[in-house]
Model the fold of this input.
Amino acid sequence: MKNKMMKKRILIVDDDPDILTTYKKGLEESGLFEVDTFTDPEETLSNFKNGLYDFLIIDIRLPKMDGFELCDKMKAIDNKVKICFITAYEINYRALRQVFPEPKLECFIQKPIEIGKLVERIKSELEQ
Done:
C-alpha cells in the first residue's frame, strides 16, 4: 500500500473561469492540493460546509456579492478556515483595516501570480 500524504483542500472563488482552470490545474499538479472552484458566490455558499476546506482563495470583486461579504458568510459556517483574498486591483490597506480590523485577514494575493509562487504562498499561510 502506498503511503500518501494527505492533500490540503483548497476552494477558489473567482468570476473568471480561465483563472480558475489555470489555478486548479497548477495547484493540483503540485501534488499538494485538491482544488474546488466556483464562479458564483451564492453557489459557493450552498456547497460550503464546516471543516471541508483547509484554505479559501476569494476574489474581492464578484457578481452578486463582493468577496468580503462572501468571506463573512463563510466564516459564519466555518470560523477556523484560513482565507486569502485575491485581486487584480490595487488594495488600500488602511481603508481595508477599517472594514476588517481582524489581523487574520491580512492575506492578499495580487493577480496575476505564477503558479509556483501561489503554491509557496498557500504552503506558507497553512503553516502559520
In short: Residues 8-127 form a domain with the Rossmann fold fold (CATH 3.40.50.2300).
